[in-house]
Write a structure and sequence with these properties.
Elements lengths: L3 E10 L5 E9 L5 E8 L8 H5 L2 H6 L3 E6 L16 H15 L4 E10 L1 H12 L4 E7 L12 E2 L2 E2 L2 H13 L11 H10 L4 H6 L6 H4 L14 E6 L7 H8 L4 E6 L16 H12 L13 E6 L13 E6 L7 E9 L2 E3 L6 E4 L27 H5 L2 E6 L4 E5 L2 E8 L5 E9 L5 E10 L18 E6 L3 E5 L4 E7 L15 E4 L4 E7 L22 E4 L2 E8 L5 E13 L6 E13 L2 E17 L2 E13 L3 E12 L4 E13 L4
Parallel strand pairs: 3-4, 3-5, 5-6, 6-9, 9-10, 10-11
Antiparallel strand pairs: 1-2, 2-4, 7-8, 11-12, 13-14, 13-25, 15-24, 16-23, 17-22, 18-21, 18-24, 18-25, 19-20, 19-23, 26-28, 27-28, 28-29, 29-30, 30-31, 31-32, 32-33
């Protein structure tokens, strides 16, 4: 099946009369066909168009009608965007599924696919049980919007709350395409005037309240009835959801984790794989009814990593594929080691240790979610950060394999009402190179639960327990397993307002490791090499590029800056030229966490003969001991002379509370 009809724009009319813009690929033949929906706020006309060519065209050639829809208030769709995963977005999604099911080219069997945003709303729509949705492939998503998204981790504020809000601010400022909408300028102005201040809105919900429970499928896993294939990569931020879904869903659910970053696997720079066969195998089984054995795949297929001397720039990974037929697996059992004066030990130790580290620990952390920029994103050699942390080592005479989530139990006192701790597991080579295996931050004011934070009483003893992020790692004999503890992990985690000292009562401090022991490995059913010829037909006008630097200023402030130029391209189908770039700046003084400062600046330029617009946005977040201060600015222009269309600024102060 080679001939595909591509409908560049189709209006999906919602029950209230609003129209959502869709691009549709229809296979050759009489039909009807099962359908695949991808539902995003990222502009089907230009931003995701090159990627869409490498997915939906392949799926359509395999007999699926593919529908790529712009969420309300984005791309060419009607309406005003209100927030991520809002009730409007999800109820509109149900209407879209019903519309697709009613088309004469659709047989009413629909699957959803998506990475990140599309992976999130695929699960969330499955949770709502629309009748036409029969299967999901969810990539880089979460089951819990508070615990495992881009806003908070362990009750700690992630700096990406501001960074991602700034990125969405720039994204949502872009105009519709004049070739599709004669009212594009009016719509553009309405969007810019009504942009939600997401950095402030999200900060206003620092604990796990109803705002975050909405869209968190872990609230009732049993509501998801359809088969789910959940996948991501170890360099991605969203590593916990696949195993959680495989363990908790009642219907067919499979997990697949490769070496990849936050990209579809066939586009990964860290070991590209055949994403298409995975998707088609899943949908062929559940949408076409083919008896291909998809339900018999191992519950958990995973790339077991090994030490590879990490750098913050892209480089290949080392490891092998393994699989567990059933998850949770009887091959994984907790091995408890105790934090002691001389490292990690087999028995409890007496005594106490203080954790009081400088605020700039984390210089080799990389970014929270690698794959969203060009390069310079990955976690590098942690040895410099280890030297500033409190470390507990376990030398290994024999190999050790970890698969799952390590659990850290601490008995602590603190000297301040607000404090946080960050735990990292690292694989330290004989040469001293420290590779991060897993990490997790925890806000100690959340010791009683993420829904009921409370100020800490200095000197009072607290018992704290939390799981680190999912991992799969083979440690070789002669290496050391290291647990590194620090009070901060900048710039990923926004620090507590003041320097703190956390006292550990070592006799009650333990680490439970998820140790895997297997005599006979099963077939891992590893994904193959990516399919050939998957390139965009867009014309490159300016090549992509990336730069990164770290400097220490005269007063000791450490400044990390990145510049990512996404380049410029021209779509030969409709002639639109698009270029963009972003600058980020993170600054902090090692001995004053309240100096934490984030800034970003985005630029988007759109051109076609006789039409030109440009958008510049600026975003800033600063703090003191009492408040966060967020500010943003937008300037939009049009024409070759860059005549001003709109300039607007927003500022808001949000109390820190227990952050």
């Amino acid at each position: 099946m080679t001939h595909i009809t591509v409908i560049e724009n189709e209006w999906i009319v919602l029950p209230d009369g609003r129209r959502l813009a869709a691009r549709i690929w229809v296979p050759a033949g009489p039909g009807p066909f099962p359908a695949i929906l991808e539902y995003l706020p990222y502009r089907k006309r230009d931003v995701t168009a090159p990627r869409d060519q490498t997915t939906h065209g392949i799926f359509a050639a395999a007999g699926y009608a593919c529908v790529r829809v712009d969420i309300a208030g984005t791309g060419d769709s009607d309406g005003v965007f209100d927030d991520e995963y809002s009730e409007q977005e999800l109820s509109d999604g149900e209407a879209v599924l019903a519309w697709i099911a009613a088309q004469d080219w659709c047989d009413a069997n629909i699957g959803m696919i998506g990475i990140s945003w599309g992976g999130f709303n695929s699960l969330q729509l499955a949770y709502r049980q629309p009748p036409a949705l029969k299967a999901v492939v969810s990539v880089a998503s979460t089951t819990d919007r508070y615990a495992d998204d881009i806003h908070f981790m362990g009750g700690c504020l992630l700096s990406d709350n501001a960074n991602w809000a700034g990125q969405m601010f720039a994204y949502q400022s872009r105009p519709p395409d004049p070739l599709l909408r004669s009212d594009w300028r009016e719509v553009w102005l309405e969007r810019m005037e009504n942009l939600p201040f997401m950095a402030a809105d999200w900060l206003a919900h620092p604990s796990r309240d109803g705002f975050w429970k909405h869209g968190s499928v872990c609230e009732e896993y049993a509501r998801i009835k359809v088969p789910v294939l959940a996948t991501t990569g170890w360099a991605d931020a969203y590593v916990n959801a696949p195993s959680q879904l495989a363990a908790n869903l009642n219907g067919p659910a499979k997990a697949l984790l490769g070496p990849w970053e936050h990209r579809y696997a066939h586009m990964s720079k860290l070991g590209a794989s055949d994403f298409h066969s995975e998707v088609l195998g899943w949908f062929d089984r559940w949408l076409k009814g083919e008896e291909n054995g998809a339900e018999d795949l191992p519950d958990y297929r995973v790339f077991m990593q090994e030490h590879f001397d990490p750098t913050q720039t892209n480089k290949p990974r080392k490891g092998r594929w393994i699989a567990e037929q059933v998850w949770p697996s009887a091959h994984v059992a907790p091995k408890t080691v105790w934090l002691g004066q001389d490292g990690l030990a087999a028995a409890p130790d007496d005594g106490q240790l203080d954790v009081s580290t400088p605020a700039h620990v984390g210089r080799a952390s990389g970014v929270f979610c690698p794959g969203m920029r060009i390069d310079n994103e990955l976690a590098g050699d942690q040895s410099g950060d280890d030297a500033l942390s409190v470390c507990f080592d376990l030398p290994l005479d024999t190999p050790m394999e970890l698969l799952g989530r390590a659990v850290l139990k601490l008995s602590i006192t603190v000297d301040k009402p607000a404090a946080q701790i960050v735990a990292r597991l690292c694989d330290v080579s004989p040469g001293g190179v420290s590779q991060r295996i897993s990490y997790r931050a925890f806000n100690l004011t959340h010791h009683a639960g993420h829904d009921r934070p409370e100020a800490l009483v200095p000197g009072q003893r607290y018992e704290v327990e939390f799981a680190l992020n999912e991992c799969a790692h083979h440690l070789r004999a002669g290496h050391k397993l290291r647990l590194a503890l620090s009070n901060s992990y900048w710039p990923i985690v926004w620090p507590a307002p003041t320097q703190t000292t956390i006292n550990l009562e070592l006799a009650e401090c333990a680490l439970a490791l998820p140790v895997r022991s297997v005599t006979d490995e099963i077939d891992p059913c590893a994904p193959g090499a990516p399919q050939p010829g998957l390139t965009s037909h867009s014309e490159t006008l300016r090549a992509a590029d990336a730069k990164a630097s770290t400097v220490t200023q005269a007063d000791g402030t450490i400044v990390q800056e990145t510049f990512d130029d996404f380049g410029a391209t021209r779509d030969p189908d409709h002639g639109m030229e698009v270029g963009s770039h972003v600058t980020t700046r993170y600054a902090i003084h090692p001995y004053d966490p309240a100096t934490a400062n984030f800034q970003s600046a985005w630029n988007f330029a759109f051109r076609r003969e006789g039409w030109q617009v440009e958008i510049d946005t600026e975003n800033t977040m600063t703090c003191d001991a009492q408040n966060f201060y967020v500010h943003r600015k937008l300037r939009a222009t049009e024409g070759a002379t860059r005549s001003e269309v709109l300039t607007k600024e927003w500022s808001q102060t949000i109390p820190r509370g227990h952050l």
